[in-house]
Amino acid sequence: LSVVPKIDPTDYVGFTFFVGAMAMMGASAFFFLSLSQFDRKWRTSVLVSGLITFIAAVHYFYMKDYWSAHMESPTFFRYVDWFLTVPLMCVEFFLILKVAGAKTSLMWRLIGLSVIMLITGYLGEAVFTNQAELWGGISGVAYFVIVYDIWLGKAKKLAVAAGGDILKAHKILCWFVLVGWAIYPLGYMLGTEGWYTSIIGTGSVDIVYNIADAINKIGFGLVIYALAIKKTDNKV
Amino acid sequence: LSVVPKIDPTDYVGFTFFVGAMAMMGASAFFFLSLSQFDRKWRTSVLVSGLITFIAAVHYFYMKDYWSAHMESPTFFRYVDWFLTVPLMCVEFFLILKVAGAKTSLMWRLIGLSVIMLITGYLGEAVFTNQAELWGGISGVAYFVIVYDIWLGKAKKLAVAAGGDILKAHKILCWFVLVGWAIYPLGYMLGTEGWYTSIIGTGSVDIVYNIADAINKIGFGLVIYALAIKKTDNKV
Ligand SMILES: CC1=C(/C=C/C(C)=C/C=C/C(C)=C/C=O)C(C)(C)CCC1
Ligand SMILES: CC1=C(/C=C/C(C)=C/C=C/C(C)=C/C=O)C(C)(C)CCC1
């Protein structure tokens, strides 16, 4: 009996957990250690990118162990992670638009919506699993309101007012939320029972969530990083 | 038999321990890595904010494991944490008022009062649990003296003398102590037996304490952070 379990080489889900864990930790080191390269006012944004991947890294370390031990989706840790990282992504949107005069009320609105999205998602995926359709639907509504807010609502107007590189970065982030985030409900539908099950079947939620997390956490962070590089005057 | 325990998705208390642990660790990374953005004389205050959340993070990692293993309040670790973090918060009050000429005697007075508050609270909550009213009452008196000192006593006078942003920050911190800290005795009354039990009933001490900690440690730190940002001249 050992504390280090044997590993099945065909455990591909486990493989993505391990790759994910260290990708997140590596990305955190990258963002954190690059901070001194930027003008002060851009450091906070890159720092928050690093926080997002750092928080994810720790939860991926839990999740890979949980998966190895029980061969069961670590839904609990998944949502602990999202409860911290998704609101922080809303903070990122706010930080970028602050130069254009964004108010904290915009940030709190996005945070509130994302919390509703996550609580209802958790209830459907982990607690009331026989009502997954219902809770997933409510979660989806909150998600659409977020998409609306940033694509067409107040956030959009502020980005247009800021123009230039900020508008460009905002647009890229909007695509992340529309396309990258849309992978999550797909994972949810693979892992729960509902009208959609006859269409898309069932499959590994975790591979889907792990890929989505890599795109949305590391990719999103790199967009902020690139913006901060562009905006830093002293390039020496 | 495995070292990674299975987790019940409806263990909401456990959820708040996990969220709390990583929120504290994330906040610490944030405060520590932001230090270079401030004028030197403000760095100590932000550094102490980071210490408070970092100390809490480590104890939350203990507490989440203790909770998962025994489904019992980790009162021991809770107070180990408070014995370090609450005095550090008194140091923060002092650091902010130092520019206004605060003496170290003010700091030691606040530290002494907070230690009395915590020792008596621990005795009531963990040792002489059938005298919880008595010990909680003594603890409450020490708490009120702290509230008096900072709202109306010497600390207040110094803050008024300093004026401007320092007075503003002091006021916000005073509200934290009056409202945010008042959540703790509420948790205490939920978890112990006394005259109050017939009024407020019993409930999960830990959810209450965890929420209070998030507000008072991270929120308090962010107020200091915002003050340091405002006071830093060179914003490049
Ligand atoms: C719409 C929807 C969902 C959306 C989840 C999302 C959008 C999660 C985003 C997570 C991110 C971006 C993490 C990275 O840090 C759930 C909860 C699966 C439930 C089903 C409906
Ligand atoms: C008044 C009172 C209490 C007060 C506790 C407080 C005020 C704790 C503050 C902790 C903080 C601020 C931690 C953050 O770092 C006790 C001990 C529960 C016992 C019952 C009476």
Describe the protein:
- Chain A has a single domain (12-231), classed as Up-down Bundle (Rhopdopsin 7-helix transmembrane proteins), CATH 1.20.1070.10.
- Chain A is mostly helical and 236 residues long.
- Helix content of chain A is 80%, strand content 0%.
- Chain A is globular and about 55 Å long.
- The first copy, chain A, has helices spanning 12-34, 40-70, 75-98, 104-127, 132-151, 154-162, 164-180, 183-191, 197-200, 205-231.
- At the A-B interface, helix 2, helix 3 and helix 4 of A face helix 1 of B.
- Bound molecules: retinal (2 copies).
Q: Total helix count of chain A?
A: 10
Overall pLDDT of chain A, averaged? 93
Q: In the CATH classification, which architecture of chain A applies?
A: Up-down Bundle
Structural domain tally of chain A = 1
Query: From the structure provided, what is the oligomeric state, counting identical versus distinct chains?
Result: homodimer
Helix coverage percent of residues of chain A?
over 70%
Which descriptors would you attach to this protein?
homodimer; 236 residues; Rhopdopsin 7-helix transmembrane proteins; 80% helix; binds retinal
In short:
The structure is a homodimer of 236-residue chains. Chain A has 236 residues and is mainly α.
Q: What secondary-structure arrangement, pairings included, does this model have?
A:
2 copies of one chain form a homodimer.
Chain A: H1 12-34, H2 40-70, H3 75-98, H4 104-127, H5 132-151, H6 154-162, H7 164-180, H8 183-191, H9 197-200, H10 205-231
The structure holds retinal (2 copies).
